[in-house]
Amino acid sequence: MSRQFWPLYGLRLTTPRLELTLPDGEVLDELARVAADGVHDEASMPFSVPWTDGSPQDRARATFQHVLGTIAEWRPEKWTLSLAVRCEGKTVGRQDLMTEDFPVTREGETGSWLGLAHQGRGIGTEMRAAMLHLAFEGLGARHVTSGAMTDNASSLRVSEKLGYRPDGLMVESVRGEARTVLRLRLPREAWEAHRTVPVEVTGLEPCRELFGA
Q1: Which residues are paired to 111 by β-bridges?
Q2: Mean of pLDDT over the chain
Q3: What is the strand order of the sheet 12-14 is part of?
Q4: Nearest Cα to 18, choosing from 111, 133, 107, 109?
Q5: Distance between CA 148 and CA 70 in Å, rounded?
Q6: Which pick of 31, 73, 142, 162 has the fewest CB atoms within 10 Å?
Q7: Total-model pTM
């Protein structure tokens, strides 16, 4: 993919085990296959938008369309950075950062998923730590928010370890049922106090105009 016209393809976040990049064709295919293999127990639904319902092919296509859609719809005033996560050379999941009017609000929201085969190894914490480093250290965020169903213990544990604080409850309609979501907020000072994962960011400078930063 051309970095000349879309420099985000040159952005890289690295941690001791992980590399996060905007997926090109080959990595995007790998990411779609990870989604097809499943990202959660089918008896539960951890997402407000139940994009994982349907067949493995449906999940793969939803992943493909989501990533390409974020590129097509990107504006400095409103963007979603959707990075593929690779662990020791293998694609394992996706980490997103979303925001609107970032130069004014200095606030973003994280979202992510991890393939079932790769859960329980601390990867979820490490990949979110990488994106938080980009948001706070790279782009100058003041707050980052997230959210999880109140029964999603694994996601809530990740947020707690990284310093997020409860920020109220929301009720959403998911699969025709009312589900309670706990909003979470991470101020800059709390992020600084809970930093444990070393992160390196490369390729950011050519992207600053796109970020509106």
Answers
A1: 96
A2: 91
A3: 165-174, 177-187, 143-149, 107-114, 90-100, 78-87, 18-21, 12-14, 200-202
A4: 133
A5: 22
A6: 73
A7: 0.93
| 37-93 tens-digit pLDDT | 877 777 676 667 766 777 889 889 999 999 999 999 999 999 999 999 999 899 999
User: Which DSSP letter does residue 109 get?
Assistant: E
Domain ranges of the chain: 7-211
Sign of the Cα torsion 90, 108, 51, 152 reads positive
Decide: 109 and 177 in contact? Cβ < 8 Å. Answer: no
Amino acid at 41: D
Residues in contact with 182: Cβ distance below 8 Å, sequence separation at least 6, in sequence order: 147, 148, 149, 150, 156, 166, 168, 169
Q: Answer for the pair 166, 184: CB distance below 8 angstroms, yes or no.
A: yes
Q: Report the DSSP beta bridge partners of residue 87.
A: 18, 90
Closest CA to 141 of 94, 183, 97: 97
Q: Tokens 């951890």 sit at which residue?
A: 46
Whose structure tokens read 């420099």?
7
Cα distance between residue 61 and residue 73, in whole Å: 18
CB 56 within 8 A of CB 36: yes
**Antiparallel, parallel or unpaired: β 107-114 and 165-174:** unpaired
Q: Please compute, for residue 156, the number of CA atoms within 13 A of its CA located in the half-sphere on the CB side.
A: 12
Q: How far apart are CA 170 and CA 178, in angstroms?
A: 10
Superfamily of domain 7-211 in the CATH hierarchy: Gcn5-related N-acetyltransferase (GNAT) (3.40.630.30)
